[in-house]
Every structure is written in structure tokens, then in C-alpha cells.
Amino acid sequence: MSLRIDVVLRVDSPTLSSAAVIGIVIGSVVLLLLIADLLCCAFGNLGILATLCRKTKRSPSDLDDEAKLGSGSLIKERPPSPLPLPPPIVKLGATTPL
Fold this sequence. Notes:
Blueprint: H1 18-44, H2 48-56, H3 60-71
């Protein structure tokens, strides 16, 4: 007669579920995008954070100046035309051929 002994090992540490793995992956991707945006903001003044910082740094007087530019009240005179126009040709009367 042979004796069979079944050994059952109990693991006390829980394994990561698929939801936890997906959460870690999404969190790491968001963190990488945030780091890339910070670097773009610091070195090139580009990105979402740079856009947000640019809007918050504006003072109300800057916004008023932009509104004046749009309405044309800051334009004092017309800029000169790039080429001078030729004088107009004036015909006073009809000439008859001889």
C-alpha cells in the first residue's frame, strides 16, 4: 500500500489583478505625458502648461490693449502704400483727326 500525501501551498501575498495592471499602465502613460509637457514648457514655451501659464500671467491692461487692437482705436494713421500710384490720366476733350 502506498501513501499519497497532497501538499497544498498557501500564498499569502495577493497577485495583481488585471484592473490594477491597467491602472498602473494608464498612470505611467499620463506621468510620461506630463513630464514631456513640462519639458516642452521649460525649453520651448510650448505645450498645454505653457498655454495655461501664458493666459494666467496676463494682466487686465494687456487684455484691454488687445481689445483696442481689434477695434482699430490704436491705429493712428494708415501705413504708406508700398508703391506710389501713377498720376491719373485726364482727357479734357475729344480730339478729331485731321
